Amino acid sequence: MRRGAAGTRPVRNPYRRHAGAATRPGPTRDACAAAPHAIHRAAPSMIPMSFAQQRLWFLGKLEGPGIAFNVPLALHLAGPLDGFVLQAALSDLLSRHESLRTCFTDAEGIGYQVVLPRERAACVLNVVDQAEEELDDAMRRFHSQPFDLEREIPLRAMLYRLAPQRHVLLLLVHHIASDGWSWAPMLRDLAQAYAARLGGQAPAWTPLPVQYADYSLWQREWMTQADTTDSDVARLVDYWKRSLAGLPEQLDLPFDRPRPARASQHGATVQVRWDESLASPLRQLARDARGSLFMGVHALVAALLFKLGAGEDLPLGTPVAGRSEEALNDLVGFFVNLLVLRSDVSGRPSFRQLLARVRDADLDAYAHQELPFERMVDIVNPGRATSRHPLFQVAVILQNNRDALFEVPGLSAQARFLVTETAKYDLTFEFTELFDAAGRPDGLALQLEYATELFDRSTVQRFADSLRHLLTQVVAQPDCSLADIELLSAQERYTLLQTWNDTAHAVPNATVSELFGAQAARTPDAPAASEGASTLSYRELDARANQLAHYLRSLGVGADQRVGLCMERSLDQLVAMLAILKAGGAYLPLDPNYPEARLSLMLNEASAMRVVTRAEHVARLHSSGVATLVFDDCGQTVGHLPQSAPPMECHPDHLAYVIYTSGSTGAPKGIAVSHRNVVELAWNRRWRDGAQQRVLMHSPPVFDACTYETWVPLLSGQHVILAPPGRADLPVLADTIVRHQVTALFLTTALFRLLVEEHGDCLGNVRTVWSGGEAAVPRVFRELLARYPHIDAVNVYGPTETTTFATCHRVLAPVSEAPIPIGKPLDNTRVYVLDDALRPVPVGVPGELYIAGAGLARGYLQRAGLTAQRFVASPFGAPGERMYRTGDRVRWREDGQLIYVGRTDHQVKIRGHRVELGEIEAVLATQPGVRQAAVIVREDQPGQRQLVAYAVAAQGAALDASTLRRALAGTMPEYMVPAAVILLDALPLTINGKLDQRALPAPVFQPASGGVPATPEEYALAGLFAEVLGLQRVGTQDSFFDLGGHSLLATRLISRIRSSLQVELSIRTLFEAPTVAELALRLREASPITRKPLRPMRGGA
């Protein structure tokens, strides 16, 4: 630290621009210049931990024993080595540096350091003969053992003897006692002690001016200034409070897997090297911006994360040495502090502009680096979660520590840090500047450390490749907007746009009615459709439809004219549907059970000239004013008309039907589908597998799945099996499948689940099942394929605007819990995953799905503006080609399959977190006894958005809502746990078989504060909550963290519970059960204390 105010220079000075340049608000000098010096002082009986130590100690208590903070360094030694002398040198090292002989304990929930006396501290050096080919495994076993910091010092050593004069000394230090800077003095002191002991003398060191305990006491004393308004600490607090206001709680990266409820800290690394031809231009760009190389790599990483969809406000973490006192330079200890560097990528900046922003933000942060990271966390007070690191989840580091050298005459030594297969954060970009033998810059090494529970290695390798590609782009065009920079290589772009969209397939240039007529001519006596015991052959269906078509023509029906079709599912309805097409018109399916007002709206908006219906439905259609044709009454007239087809007056681009959407997002809108669209679907090669022999028609005609159920079999000579009219219940549907030996069917996701779980026996002879409409449930596919491995099970996706189906994925056993893809595009369909500027996004990065090809509907009937908004020009096809903007967020998988992520326009956000409801549903559905599950966001009171879950019990199972909610809390991040779980007898479904959200009941919530203790456990806990939080009273439903609790107070509360109630609870338990009521239940499962609490050890240095 500084030797006086006169020697103080602001950190910002070396990079400061000319005097006229604008700077951000903040102190004009280092805010800590007046901080008290770290001096040697008498140790109190209980030495507090430094703030950095406190964080690691708390994480150890929260997570339990782990190796995330084990730091192993291997010294490869060549030459004569005396193991006994090396043992003595290690003892000398412990004597010199108190931090290496310090244990850690707590009293009343507060952590303390216990510095062991020299004579009681020992680092035993074990020497083993080791085969070189097994060395890596042996070292991995050694450094993968957790430290027990309460009972052992934070240093271990092992000497592996490979040959008489070849050894490897493995030093393992816990991060709580050291940092990257510490290795240089540690190895220097160890080498000096070894050389001295080898000569029979004690090392002649200059005494250290201070020890780590002095630093801890000094830091605590200095931080007491925070309550003084004009103090340096108060100004630091004010700066970080302003700087971190509105900070995103987590970065949304292109994860391969959902974030678990608790981070395991398992990790791996990807390593790459950039030669100087790449590094030099970046170095020059940073120099031109009056910045450092670190600022260059920081800006580059921020640009990459922006391009990967992480947003425009990017908080990144970085360590700083924290050794601002000269007295600390030669000390081994944990001085490093973490800074949050906030990158602003809003407003389409160029890389040069981003670099300038990063420079300013970094310099401001450096000028205020003295505030401990732990205090920053307290200032921001983010939502507590064991699933992620607070304030930032991505770190960027440029290694510039002093070289750690072990220099002893007669010995050559090479130091190498070992990979520990851990990850402290989601991603860490660690750069190291390389130099050649002459000391000239020789490129950059990049090590990407990643959490393996979130990312696959291939994904992180792709990040590294993308970062390199991005670097080549930004140095070549530093003034180009980052939004316009292409992250994809030419080969990647070709794969996304061409290879994975190579779906061209010849299709007849004909209408649906023409193709049906041709099929009827080829197979006149084959069964076309059956309803119960009644069957129509192709000849009979064709003849009856032709006769009705002639009659419709006589009424004026022609090309593109809409004719309402308001009939229950039946053979007659099928005849009418085909007849309307043969007359040249387009059918408008109407559900007889719709409200009259809705039927009237649809008929009038579609400008229907006529509506074909049954006598019992006529009264419901009168208000529309559209003329009716009662099918029952025109049989005699129609029966005398020709059975041959009327002359065709339409072509493939004329309308075949208009289907209105459910209106769940607003007023219903009619989607106009052409003959060509239908033929494209029906002629897909996917149906040529022989499985479509008998296709079940059970969907309502107003649901576009009916297009598949009708025209795929009828245009290929197969057999349509009609389910009974109306909403067929499951037993009836199952009976129809078995009785008619159905071979193929489509089921909505919800119906598929019910049928498999409750009537799976009916599927024994089915050859293919297609399911879609909502996110697939892996468990249902797994159950189906386990029972019937012969079934071709397909997850299918497609908006009505793309004619029923656009992509599909065949599900194969074994089925994991990973999201089931929605697959690859069907014939003559092209799919694009694009960003906001309609540019393709890389594999793994979520983007909006756009669909192009011959299946695209004409648009929305009578809605030119909406059509133009959703059906946009395609920049990837021929002139005039369109693509449909689905509003669905998807991402590419490496094999060209699409994974559904969620919606773009109704994205769920809870307390600043993006939440995909399907993920919660999937976890809830795996709980014992749960047959069905659904999760929605409710806002029953303005501004109070709550996640609410609904569960249906399996037959014979008894569910408890609170038990289910606790189960979710045990497996998911806190912000994803629903506020309530409501038990239902069945999930309400719409007529299309989808979840009817409007019919789900609202929960009855307890007040945000309240609840009177009812049990001895609740009374005791309520008192302890109030005591630790400094409150008068606490209700049983009040969350500890909502009342101002944080990690340190949580530790104190657990300690008070231990001492007062004589039970052992983990800190994690409090995170999972933060209310008095929930924690009281955990008390019953808690273990009694089996050991006496540790007491602080007293002893001199």
From TrEMBL:
SMART domains: PKS_PP
Top-level lineage group: Bacteria
GO cellular component, one term: cytosol
Record domain Carrier: where: 1012-1087
InterPro entries according to UniProt: AA_adenyl_dom, AB_hydrolase_fold, ACP-like_sf, AMP-bd_C, AMP-bd_C_sf, AMP-binding_CS, AMP-dep_synth/lig_dom, CAT-like_dom_sf
Keyword line: Phosphopantetheine, Phosphoprotein
Alphabetized CDD domains for the sequence: A_NRPS_Srf_like, LCL_NRPS-like
Region Disordered, annotated ranges: 1-31
GO biological process: one example: monocarboxylic acid biosynthetic process
Signal sequence coordinates: none
Co-factor requirement: pantetheine 4'-phosphate
One GO MF term attached to the UniProt entry: phosphopantetheine binding
NCBIfam families per UniProt: AA-adenyl-dom
Record-given protein name: Amino acid adenylation domain-containing protein
